[in-house]
Amino acid sequence: MKEKCIYITIFLMLVVFFSSSTLAQTTGEPAADLALEMVGPNNQGFITSEFVQYIYAEARGIDLPRLAREQRQVGEEVARESLQAGDILFFQGSSLMSGIYIGDGRFVVVTSGGITEINLDASTYWSGIYVGANRYFEDAVPVEDPAASLALEMIGPNEQGFLTSEFVQHVYAQSKGIDLPRLARDQLLTGAEVEKDKLEAGDVVFFQGSSLMSGIYIQNGQFVIVTSSGITQANLYSSSYWSGIYVGANRYTEGSSIEDSSANLALEMVGENHQGFITSEFVQYIYKETKGLELPRAASDQWLLGEEVALEDLLPGDVVFFQGAFLMSGIYIENGRFVIITSEGITERNMNTSEYWSNAFVGAKHYTDENLTPPPTSNEIVEKARSLIGTPYNRRGDNPVDGFNTGSFAYYVYREVTGSWLSKLSYAQFEAGLEVERDELQEGDLVFFQNNDEWLTGIYSGDDRFIIAASEGVQERHLDFHTYYSDRYVGAVRYTDAILNKSNPNTYLNHKNPVIQEAMKYMGTPYLMTGSTLEAFDCSFLIQTSFREGKGIYLPRISYRQWEVGETILPEGTNIEEITLDDHIRPGDALYFSGTWQEGISHVAIYLGDNYMIHATGEEGMTTISYMNSYWREHFTGVKRFDDLSVQLDHPAVYEAYQVLGSPYQLGGADPEQGFDTGGLTQYIYKQAYQYDLPRYGSQQWQVGMEIHPDNAEPGDLLFFEGTTLIPAIYLGNNQMVVATQANGVMIVDLTVSSYWPPRLYGARTYEIEDVTLEAVAVLTENYVGEVFHGSSVEFVQNMYLEAANKQLSGNIHTLRSGGDSIHIEELERGDVMFFSEETESNTPSFIGIYLGDGSFATLRDQVVEKYEMNDDIYWINRLLEARRY
């Protein structure tokens, strides 16, 4: 019985023990109670923080972060002595661990042995690694802010591949409809700055690592950010890493504060560049769509218009400019932000945060209806040049109707405004002006560019701008931003009043030298190779006419023949670089040049003084005043003075007669070497002058030609006198003649003062000397223009001569060149044959043509007979070798 009572007593004691133990494991705090219930095997494979996360979600409906370090960053920190059941304890081992506090120093934590209960006070290990505790309330993680809520929802893998700032951009666009910039550096410059102690859920926090990063703030130091682990939650206060690189925070409110329509449309279009815009085309499109303003297509042209704006005064919608390989333009937003086309599409950038864009920034413009035209100027040159903007480009034009090239544009503007005749050639304009440095440029100066061997001229209009006849017409350009010109800029010159006076015809109207006065009457007369009328003429005709009309001096028609008469002031071979012209010659002297068209004397001008001259020039296409630039100095030959010349040399027969003056009388003689008799002299002169075959003796010469009254005789006609035989003489004009006399040889006789010759005058005759065969060749050639001819140019010329003149020419171009008579370019007549080379530096003929008069010729090109003008065409001028007459 006693033994039975003992067993009953033991059983009751065990019941009491287990009852008290079960009661002790119930804390009344749901998180702590659930933790106790789960003590045992870790069937779920929790890590410590996942166990805590699970407990809080199941027991209290609170979503804690997954990792202990993130759990540590949320909630309210609790001192060890104030711990309550359900608080979370943190321990620092190889990684941060967390567990659930039960009470009385006990806590539940995941260990290698499973989910275990441990006493903090009794365990030296756990007490040694204890680092703190947090308490969490039902509202510990607010979700009222939509950006913060969405950020929390997205914690996990970064499946979209966001950058930190792209994540923030996405969250704000999806949750608040606010379009933030793509990059953190641009996000930092928008919105309102927030102090660290005033952060609210949804604010954007910024961190400076290798690049600027941004994240979404939650609360109590928590924020969500993209890391290498994905979209993660971190704590600004508890993480020394994030706290150390924190640089600030911004708050963004719904709705844009930007009211400018251009800025707003630019922002709306950020994304892919579907239209394929270049930077300036994008700006052009934005302004047309939003403000109805027609901006130019190119950024460099946009820069020329509008009102310049300082960086600190920029407003939304202004246009900002940047210099890269070329000038770029974009739409300004605010706070350094702007929208521009890049290789990535239509993008938003920021000048304040980007070193590249900050360094590339060159300025900004504000555009209105009132400032889309160039700024006003008081400079007449610039004003005139701007009035011609839009005039078409024409390489051979020199007026607003026909258009301009760069040189003729400057020539026209200066002539219209100042009355001075600058050269039409850019390189000549450069050499004639006073060179100035770029930083000394003034409105109206000329700026120059070089494209390979071609010089280009512009008129400086101020602020690094210039006006030029470009391929698209007369336009205003910029010395820096129009890269075609900035890369080719070679210098600038200024035309002072003193320089302009030298090329102004009015300066010479009352010149003391009548030859210069006369020459000025023909300013602007078109140049025409071999031209011999006042409507159009060449260089030697101008000299001949000016001396005849100005001083009554009769010169030969051809420049090289003029060089053979008169007084030599500077001989051939004079080094013009070693002398000052004005120390040796005077205004009214004739300047001669060689090698401009062909070898030997080929050009002539009248000297005006101060290294200026007037001449009829194919290079300028007219009679004009020119500076003695390097080209003319290179071709300079010498100077002649004709003041005392009284023989009339304008007629070929008179000229030839002048050449043999002083030759001895020789009976039976008919050339300068053996001397002349009377008939031999006139026969020789006509042969040399006209290729005309007079009979040998005077009586025979009287039988041909046409009799005229002696009073109607003209230079070159023959006068006949009675003697033992009929004596012929060459009439010179001015009642003078050349005759071969036994006593004095070939001499000039003045019939006005002679008592011997007038009583013996028998009569006068004139002769038809035109070479009708050459004219027939020219006429036939003109009939072939435009027709197909199968063969070479030599064969074509052969055919023309054979058909029109019944002349058989050689079929070999080199044999043909050695035949006939060499003709000076200024002596060309219709039907003469011209030799050309395909290469400018070659002396080997490649093809030939037939001269048709007035500077034109026909030749065979690609089996078609073509007619060409060569008066001022450098292509043909540089390829012409010589001309010959057959």
TrEMBL record:
Ribosomal protein in keyword set: no
PROSITE patterns listed in its UniProt record: NLPC_P60
Gene3D superfamilies according to UniProt: endopeptidase domain like (from Nostoc punctiforme)
Annotated NlpC/P60 domain residues: 16-137, 134-253, 245-368, 375-496, 509-643, 647-768
A Pfam family reported for this protein in Swiss-Prot or TrEMBL: NLPC_P60
Gene Ontology BP term (one): proteolysis
Protein name per UniProt: C40 family peptidase, Nlp60/P60 wall hydrolase D-glutamyl-D-glutamyl endopeptidase
Assigned protein family: Belongs to the peptidase C40 family.
Leader peptide range in chain numbering: 1-24
Any GO MF annotation of the entry: cysteine-type peptidase activity
Keywords from the UniProt entry: Hydrolase, Protease, Signal, Thiol protease
SUPFAM superfamilies to which the protein is assigned, alphabetical: Cysteine proteinases
